[in-house]
Amino acid sequence: MNASAPRRVAVLGATGSIGGSTLDVIARHPARFRASVLVAHRNVEALAALCAAHRPELAVIADPALEGELARRLAAAGVRCEVAAGMEAIAAAAAGPLCDTVVAAIVGAAGLDSTLAAARAGKRLLLANKESIVMAGPLLLQALREGGGELIPVDSEHNAIFQCLPGGRPALAEAGVRRLILTASGGPFRGRTRAELATVGPDEACRHPKWSMGRKISVDSATLMNKGLEVIEAHHLFGAPPARIEVLVHPQSLVHSLVEYADGSVLAQLGNPDMRTALAHALAWPERVEAGVAPLDLAAGPPLAFERPDLDTFRCLALAFQALHAGGDAPAILNAANEVAVEAFLAGAIPFLAIADVVESVLAELPAQAVVDVQTLVARDRAARAAARRVLHGAC
Ligand SMILES: NC(=O)C1=CN([C@@H]2O[C@H](COP(=O)(O)OP(=O)(O)OC[C@H]3O[C@@H](n4cnc5c(N)ncnc54)[C@H](OP(=O)(O)O)[C@@H]3O)[C@@H](O)[C@H]2O)C=CC1
Ligand SMILES: CC(=O)[C@@H](O)[C@H](O)COP(=O)(O)O
Ligand SMILES: [Mn+2]
């Protein structure tokens, strides 16, 4: 890349938690990075405000009904940028000439098409949208190979592992790697019993002890499904067999993950729990830039603690390992059922513990099939969502 030309970054999910952290880092380094494309779902007011602040070349709103309102708001604010709408426009923007870097930070399966489009187009893909790699790991890796771009993980654990490996994503056996150790905060309900979890509600579940995140991933952290999705994500990103991936609960969330080598060395990446570190690393890689994150003062904090996860209480983590072992499209089925169950929980329609029950029922109803292509995968995602809704209706 020309050293004098800033990277042109498309931020998919600009109005979300990752989107906000990304734009904060970008704004700190105007000579290096420019937000050239901003994308949101329905939050037209926030998207217009971000356009006024960052002056992208293109703004895309997923909901076509809001395109006119976005254009009106931008005109009223004196912002001149192209406006587009719809999921196809998002994928086209991710693959198009207005960006060389794509931050995939749409939440859920809705991010799949644009993530794949960016990979196929050979962009530098900064992957936060873990659901897309969980659903379509082999297809995404194939798209990356064909596109000739690069993937830098943004999820804090995977970014940590990337930093602890030689040259990013080498073949693990050749690099002498014995195990990948993913840390988990344990979420807001660490240490609670199933009886204590029977009546917890959405706001409690979203009160994460260490990270400020969107509501879907916050619930996933509370059930430990987030860690389950991350185990599957690590399997695909680093080519690690399930037996070589371990999860350790680390309530301080200062050690973001670790890599154990054949000689007994264990390398870890540490830092305050602030996603701007991972985002700055991924945006600037292989260079390093300031991220606005407070320096870590290990002497001032509590001692670092580690414990094994409670798989009997937090069954979603066990279910994710089960789906990974089943292989094929079982992780996509797991993800779809989880998305439906989490939405129902957030709407107050089902209790917290029912999330795992729904996922377990749907995995049992739809045994794994081989992943053939995106169309088949999307059809299976739909079937899993329909099955999850039937389970919900049966239970309510
Ligand atoms: N937050 C974090 O610290 C971390 C998040 N991640 C992952 O990053 C992703 C984003 O998480 P987070 O930022 O917390 O989520 P948020 O809920 O805060 O933000 C979600 C973003 O996605 C947009 N969006 C939702 N649905 C669609 C759609 N159909 N089409 C286009 N855009 C859509 C939203 O737009 P709108 O505002 O208009 O609804 C919003 O910009 C998730 O996959 C999560 O697992 C990974 C590691 C850490
Ligand atoms: C910041 C990040 O990467 C989240 O995925 C985080 O890991 C969530 O915390 P849990 O460890 O509680 O799932
Ligand atoms: Mn994470």
UniProtKB/TrEMBL annotation:
Enumerate the residues binding Mn(2+): 155, 157, 230
**Keywords of the record:** Isomerase, Isoprene biosynthesis, Magnesium, Manganese, Metal-binding, NADP, Oxidoreductase
Answer whether the UniProt record assigns the keyword Hydrolase to this protein: no
Q: Where is the 1-deoxy-D-xylulose 5-phosphate reductoisomerase C-terminal domain?
A: 151-238
Residues annotated for 1-deoxy-D-xylulose 5-phosphate binding in this entry: 130, 156-157, 185, 208, 221, 226-227, 230
Binding of NADPH: at which residues? 15-18, 42-43, 129, 131, 214
Look up the record and name the pathway of this protein. Answer: Isoprenoid biosynthesis; isopentenyl diphosphate biosynthesis via DXP pathway; isopentenyl diphosphate from 1-deoxy-D-xylulose 5-phosphate: step 1/6
* Gene Ontology MF annotations: 1-deoxy-D-xylulose-5-phosphate reductoisomerase activity; isomerase activity; manganese ion binding; NADPH binding
Q: Which GO terms describe its biological process?
A: isopentenyl diphosphate biosynthetic process, methylerythritol 4-phosphate pathway involved in terpenoid biosynthetic process
Oxidoreductase is among the record's keywords: yes
Which cofactors, by name? Mg(2+); Mn(2+)
InterPro entries membership: DXP_reductoisomerase, DXP_reductoisomerase_C, DXP_reductoisomerase_N, DXPR_C, DXPR_C_sf, NAD(P)-bd_dom_sf
Ranges where the DXP reductoisomerase C-terminal domain occurs:
270-386
Query: Where are the coiled-coil regions?
Result: none
Record-annotated 1-deoxy-D-xylulose 5-phosphate reductoisomerase N-terminal domain positions: 9-137
What is catalyzed by this enzyme?
A: 2-C-methyl-D-erythritol 4-phosphate + NADP(+) = 1-deoxy-D-xylulose 5-phosphate + NADPH + H(+)
Q: Which Pfam families match?
A: DXP_redisom_C, DXP_reductoisom, DXPR_C
User: Which EC numbers does the record give?
Assistant: 1.1.1.267
Q: Which family does it belong to?
A: Belongs to the DXR family.
HAMAP family (UniProt xref): DXP_reductoisom
The cross-references to NCBIfam families, in alphabetical order and at most eight, read: Dxr, PRK12464.1
Summary of the function given for this chain in its UniProt record? Catalyzes the NADPH-dependent rearrangement and reduction of 1-deoxy-D-xylulose-5-phosphate (DXP) to 2-C-methyl-D-erythritol 4-phosphate (MEP).
Protein's UniProt name: 1-deoxy-D-xylulose 5-phosphate reductoisomerase
Organism in which the protein naturally occurs: Fulvimonas soli
